[in-house]
From TrEMBL:
Listed Gene3D superfamilies: Tetracycline Repressor, domain 2
Domain of life: Bacteria
Organism: Sphingobacterium hotanense
UniProt keyword Aminoacyl-tRNA synthetase present: no
Pfam families (alphabetical): TetR_C_28 (PF17937), TetR_N (PF00440)
Keyword tags: DNA-binding
Residue intervals of the HTH tetR-type domain: 14-74
Protein known as: TetR family transcriptional regulator
DNA-binding region listed in the record: 37-56
Length: 184
């Protein structure tokens, strides 16, 4: 039988760090980021508060890492989509949002990202920097109405679904994407 005692656990710093991030994401998505405490993470993971503090001095450090990981994962997913023949830029972002809406881990992570953007302007700045680099690169027409609409629709769907005010069927998602795709 495996011993779950934190004191006899092998030291696996990267696994523990990810365990902390995953637990914080779960708690923040279930409740609210303000409800994420090191004690709540310790209770969920079996790690000690000291072990958590070893990886993250405070909640801001934890949220910084969570944002960095989230944006890195988003970049990889959008690039993968383009590589697999999907759309790029704002239309690709919309396609990505529509396709990932059923992925529970994605939904929880994006709920935390949305909270972070609303909590602190530095996260909003980080999001905008990511957006300008990967969704709307300088070589694309930033003033294109199609790009503006695609981005606004993607964010609208993301926000509405995370707040529980709207759920689209897969057919509706496809119809939205095809409609925007045909815009000039």
């Amino acid at each position: 039988m495996e011993n779950n005692n934190a004191y006899s656990r092998k030291k696996e710093p990267e696994l523990n760090k990810q365990l902390i991030i995953d637990a914080a994401t779960e708690i923040g998505a279930e409740l609210d980021w303000h409800q994420v405490t090191f004690q709540a993470i310790a209770d969920r993971t079996g790690l000690s508060k000291g072990g958590i503090i070893h990886h993250f001095r405070n909640k801001e450090d934890l949220l910084d890492e969570l944002m960095t990981q989230s944006l890195t994962e988003l970049k990889a997913q959008v690039e993968k989509q383009v590589t697999n023949g999907g759309s790029k830029g704002a239309l690709g972002y919309l396609q990505f949002v529509l396709e990932k809406r059923d992925d529970e881990k994605y939904k929880k992570t994006m709920r935390i990202v949305l909270q972070a953007i609303m909590i602190n302007s530095k996260y909003n700045d980080q999001w905008l920097e990511w957006y300008n680099q990967y969704i709307m690169p300088a070589d694309e027409d930033k003033l294109s109405m199609k790009n503006r609409i695609a981005f606004l629709v993607a964010d609208g769907i993301w926000y509405a679904e995370d707040m529980g005010s709207s759920q689209l069927s897969n057919e509706d998602k496809q119809e939205v994407f095809e409609y925007i795709k045909q815009l000039k």
